[in-house]
UniProtKB/TrEMBL annotation:
Residue span(s) of domain Glycoside hydrolase family 29 N-terminal: 27-331
Residues annotated as signal peptide: 1-24
Keywords: Glycosidase, Hydrolase, Signal
Signal listed as a keyword: yes
Organism: Chryseobacterium indologenes
Name this polypeptide is given: alpha-L-fucosidase
Function, in words: Alpha-L-fucosidase is responsible for hydrolyzing the alpha-1,6-linked fucose joined to the reducing-end N-acetylglucosamine of the carbohydrate moieties of glycoproteins.
GO biological process terms, semicolon-separated: fucose metabolic process; glycoside catabolic process
Family in the record: Belongs to the glycosyl hydrolase 29 family.
Length: 614
């Protein structure tokens, strides 16, 4: 491929894909390698709260049920059909590389035979009358998966702890420091037990917000843990003494600054088993969430909540098995990958291989082609992950714009992965000449899909060539520059979707939508350009506004939408999913019009841990 840029200027403009990644992430220390490469873990919330199917610990803390009645669930926690080896086999089948289980939640009930003073344990006080943590950890270690143990710092049931419920405290630390020291000794004794007995690879703390690092004696706790395992990995919830960040429930819009991070995420709206919570995400949504997290360089810690008898609900099993279907054929595109290329280079999700010599593109729709911009390296090969027989051709329309032909590809039911392999780390330009087209160029393109794509991309980037072109707001009585070569299919599409093209401006920044978009002049309508045939509902993140209405532009259909992971008391928006009936998809490109209550407001802040579960 001929280069038009001279060497000196070229070096000034370009950075290698690996260098981009290295700048965003500091050198990783050896102990973090397995965690960084794992990409998928399974979280397990199991405790007496599964008996009545109510919120773990928070239900009595918030006075939804009194503490005495909450603790009566001990009598129903049987673990009668608990088969830890089957749990581990299912976790392995999902493609996860580690698991994190709640050894003790905020309710203070320990799953193992703790001998710490005044400990409430499943072996001693529950109907199960047995240690349920040890057999799971043993099965986990025998399988080769990494062992993670969740441990709550607060213990709202323990007589030495200061807090009992949201409205009730046992004492003030300043008035009884001796009792607080007794509690610190208690929780550190339990951590000593867990460290000695199970030698975990990872310790997942929770609840640090209730006290300061000094009060928790966090540095002392850290030293205690490292005494047993100098390479133990600790999450950020020990007053920031840990190794990695833990955004909770909300999928980040902007990549977290910490190079090591993990999204902890529920399948429905609950951590523990709640039989009446049927607000499950679909298996398709979960696979796409994993691809989203991978593209930002993080891990997904996906939660399951077993029943009181030890069985895993069918809905959760189905999601894990479908994850396994996808992870088994996309191994190279998952494990060991690094954060992908920028949204300016590719309007979608992507990742780099660990050696930086492969780029993976994650497609959530079946479509005829994709484009990569600013790519100054030619790949040795392009293929579909998991389908060695797929035929994928590519060409460069100029020195740095690559188009990949997908017309003969068999698409995955959830996410199709394209792998581009290079002889060395590919070069992506920091600054590159964007494709430019006139209205006549667009209208004379014989390929209507390509013409519509190029037009949408121009508008998304803030270059609306339809301004002053003769386009009208309703697509009628247009005075566009038609010639004998005008493609009337493209002209018809423009007329139909005029509202999304007329005086619209630059689209959403990367992270909100995996595709191109535009904003109306008053910024009260978001237009999403939907390519091809989506494998599931269209996803939109980080919109703070109230949604007034969603419709298909140009044909009037009103669409419903669902929002997941929105906590009613939190300002962090949930993720919106919009189903488009297949019979209403436009063969060239569908456009969704999302009407807002006011000019668009975007959430691009850091997603934090949940510190108050009302």
């Amino acid at each position: 491929m001929k280069k038009r840029i001279t060497g000196a200027v070229f070096l000034g403009l370009m950075v290698s894909a690996c260098h981009i990644n290295a700048q965003a992430k500091p050198d990783e220390i050896k102990k973090m390698e397995w965690f960084r490469n794992a990409k998928l873990g399974i979280f397990i919330h199991w405790g007496i709260y599964s008996v009545n199917g109510i919120s773990e610990s928070w239900s009595f803390f918030n006075n939804y049920i009194n503490h005495e009645n909450y603790m009566k669930q001990l009598n129903g926690f049987s673990a009668s059909d608990y088969k830890p080896e089957e749990w581990v086999r299912l976790i392995q089948e999902s493609g996860a590389k580690y698991a994190v289980i709640t050894s003790k939640h905020h309710d203070g009930i320990s799953l193992w035979n703790s001998e710490a003073e005044n400990a409430i344990t499943i072996p001693h006080q529950s109907a199960a009358k047995k240690d349920v943590l040890t057999p799971f950890v043993s099965a986990l270690k025998n399988s080769g998966l990494k062992t993670g143990i969740y441990f709550s710092l607060p213990d709202w049931s323990h007589p030495y702890y200061d807090v009992n419920t949201r409205t009730k405290k046992r004492y003030e630390i300043r008035n009884d420091p001796k009792k607080w020291d007794q509690f610190v000794s208690y929780y550190q004794t339990q951590l000593d037990e867990l460290s000695r007995q199970y030698k975990p690879d990872l310790l997942w703390f929770d609840g640090d917000w209730e006290h300061s690092s000094e009060e928790w004696k966090a540095p002392q706790t850290l030293s205690l843990l490292k005494k047993y395992n100098s390479d133990i990995i600790i999450n950020s919830r020990l007053n920031n003494h840990g190794d990695y960040d833990t955004p909770e429930q909300g999928i980040p819009v902007v990549t977290p600054k910490n190079p090591y991070w993990e999204l902890c995420y529920t399948m429905n709206d609950s951590w523990g088993y709640q039989p009446f919570d049927n607000h499950y995400k679909t298996p398709n949504m979960i696979v796409r969430t994993l691809a989203d997290v991978i593209s930002m360089g993080g891990n997904l810690l996906l939660d399951i909540g077993p029943k009181a008898d030890g069985t895993i609900p069918e809905e959760q099993t189905r999601i894990l098995k479908n994850l396994g279907r996808w992870t088994s054929k996309n191994k190279d595109a998952i494990y060991g990958t690094r954060q992908g290329i920028s949204f300016e280079h590719y309007k979608g999700k992507s990742a780099f291989s660990e050696d930086g010599k492969s780029i993976f593109l994650y497609l959530e729709e079946a479509k005829d082609f994709v484009k990569i911009y600013g790519l100054a390296s030619k790949p040795l090969s392009v293929k579909i992950a998991g389908d060695e027989n797929s035929k994928v051709n590519f060409l460069f329309s100029n020195d740095t714009t690559m188009m990949i032909d997908l017309s003969e590809v068999k698409f995955d039911q959830d996410v199709t992965t394209i792998q581009l392999t290079f002889s060395e780390q590919p070069t992506l330009l920091k600054s590159f000449k964007k494709e430019s087209f006139s209205v006549t160029d667009i209208l004379e393109n014989r390929n209507a899909k390509a013409a519509v794509y190029d037009l949408a991309n121009l508008i998304h980037n803030g270059s609306n060539i339809m301004d002053h072109s003769g386009l009208t707001h309703d697509g009628l009585e247009m005075h566009l520059p038609k010639t004998a070569k005008t493609n009337h299919e493209t002209l018809k599409w423009i007329s139909k979707h005029a509202e999304a093209l007329y005086e619209t401006g630059k689209g959403l920044p990367g992270g909100h939508y995996s595709g191109m978009s535009a904003l109306s002049k008053d910024r009260k309508t978001i237009y999403l350009f939907v390519e091809g045939i989506p494998t599931g509902p269209v996803a939109l993140k980080g919109i703070k506004n109230t949604i007034a209405r969603i419709r298909i532009a140009g044909e009037g259909s009103i669409l419903d939408h669902k929002i997941y992971n929105k906590l009613y008391w939190s300002e962090t928006p949930g993720i919106m999913y919009i189903d488009i009936p297949k019979q209403r998809l436009d063969k060239n490109m569908t456009v969704l019009a999302i009407l807002l209550d006011k000019p668009v407001e975007l959430h691009r802040e850091k997603v934090e841990a949940i510190e108050s579960n009302l």
